[in-house]
Amino acid sequence: MANFFNDNEDLRFHFDRAIDWATLAQATERGARAPDGPSDLAEAVASYRDVAALMGTLAAEEIAPRAGRIDREPVRLENGQVVPGAAFQEVFDQIRRLELHRLPLPRELGGMNAPVLLWFLGCELMARADVSVMTHFSLHGGIAMALLYYSLAEGSTRLDGAGGRIAGTRFAKEIEEIASGAAWGSMDITEPDAGSDMAALRTVATEAPDGSWTVTGQKIFITSGHGKYHVVVARTGPAPGLDGLSMFLVPADDRRRVSVERVEDKLGHHGSVTAAVCFDRAPAQLLGKRGDGFRQMLLLMNNARLAVSFEALGLCEAAHRLARGHAALRHTMGRPIARHEMIADYLDEMATDIQGLRALAIHAALHEELGAKLTFVGAAAAAEHRARARRATPLLKYLAAEKAVEMARRCIQIHGGIAYTKELGAEKLLRDAIVLPIYEGTSQIQALMATKDVLGGIVKRPHELLARLAQARWRSLSAKDELERRAARIQLASLGAQQHLATRTAASKLRTHEWRRGLHFRWDPRRDFALALLHAERLTRLLADEQIVEILLAQARRFPERRELLGRYLDRAEPRCRALGDEIATTGSRILDGLSTDLAKKSA
Ligand SMILES: Cc1cc2nc3c(=O)[nH]c(=O)nc-3n(C[C@H](O)[C@H](O)[C@H](O)COP(=O)(O)OP(=O)(O)OC[C@H]3O[C@@H](n4cnc5c(N)ncnc54)[C@H](O)[C@@H]3O)c2cc1C
Predict the structure, then answer these.
(1) Exposed, middle or buried, 423 (CB in 10 Å: 0-12/13-18/19+)?
(2) What is the pLDDT of residues 433-464, one digit of tens each?
(3) Residues with CB under 6 A from ligand 1
């Protein structure tokens, strides 16, 4: 029987050897052994393995064979009701029978209490079969978990003293409905005039004298927007920009108040519903504090970005395997095309990138989950996990999404003309991939986030950059292990680029300020960071390589069999990082001069 978990050696390496299940299971079981929980770590991990294998079979045997039908059977809007395609519905009937929507939810709320990381691995397996199934699946668990986190953060979930088991929560009914598969949710942020720019959101929430709320406005491009539970960001006060935003749960109980106006006719993701949703004085419940909407959205977004990254990884895996299979069978000029030099190089690069991405994805998801779970029990280690997740997540979302498009395109190229027809599903992969760098924060927005974080850190603690540079330089020359020296050279390229951008940024300020005042006061991100913003995508690629190499090096130290992968990754990353560093150091001024001339003309 085909199984997307069992047939994936790299995924099984992570599962069986690299993932720290002990720490994760302890945080998930919240320290104390529940009467209905696993008796020890071995039993917990065995049950996680069973779930992974089950999802591997589901993806390979049930979802993948229906992917073509899911792509061809359109979602319809009939009398205000959304009707999914038959194959899509068959898959979700199965998922419901298997009770997989319960996977990451706590046992006390009817869930299976599995680590969220296991759920993400399942997302990769599903996405390898069909991304629109994975997308809808992730909005079941994702919204239920978000409601629980919001409620924990605002204090409306009660934990009992011993072991922190959940004694009661504000959203027990909603979570059970989602867990059973009877309802699902959506994340309603985007509006016609506000996508990347959340400060431009216009949907309003109004509070009545009795303290109840209603929401009015239009949201567009809402994945699974025909769901019952809408998590909506709306404006609650006169404060402009991000400060005036709050977050609400808006149940679609009354379709006159919450209606689906339109279902988008898209390039790909045909099984998934992407809807324009209209709220007309819809009864709403405030989540958390008024004015905290942007901060709360980031929490939801963190997990959503991880989910999209695992989705992209699944698609990369599908593209690589399809291409590899074809290249092995198809002969030209007396050889399988896999044995022609250029194609062999493509396939090797795809395989290497997938392994690097998976290591990064698992690292980011593990730290995000530990950060969140340990925060709620007040553990000191939480902050370090959150910091690691914060560093890795934008790099991962950026790279995974971009690589999915690149690999889908390569898969087509390796097939030649046959892939331009609909016969093999290669063109579906490309159509499905193209949205990945757009939703859950575009690639450019991820790059801006990563760059601002890194440069913000340098501005606050410039001595740290210098110390890290000195250490990396020393290791690049004197480390005993050649792989360690090569890894240090990647870090040097990244730190060198950061230093260049920071120095150029500071230099432009120092022209107008005494240096100490200049460095510490009156930063205007738009003006002062212009060069860094221009190079944000290049810097993000460098940072991603630096982070992947760091993770693979740590793996290679623990597991010597991973040295071969690290060497392979470094072969490609070293020249790439040198080139990126060179581009950052030598280009950009012409564009910036042009932009400031335009600005000067406008204000004259
Ligand atoms: C299939 C699909 C499903 C979606 N699902 C959801 C959902 O469930 N919920 C939801 O709320 N939204 C959803 N979206 C919307 C999606 O999140 C937005 O499309 C995305 O945030 C980009 O916004 P935009 O389309 O308005 O593009 P814009 O914000 O107009 O951006 C256009 C381009 O300009 C770039 N850009 C913008 N600002 C900057 C800057 N400062 N510097 C550099 N470049 C910049 C962007 O990166 C992009 O390349 C979905 C979209 C699609 C296509």
Answers:
(1) exposed
(2) 999 999 999 999 999 999 999 998 998 898 99
(3) 186-190, 195-197, 221-223, 266, 269, 274, 435, 438-439, 442, 444-445, 448
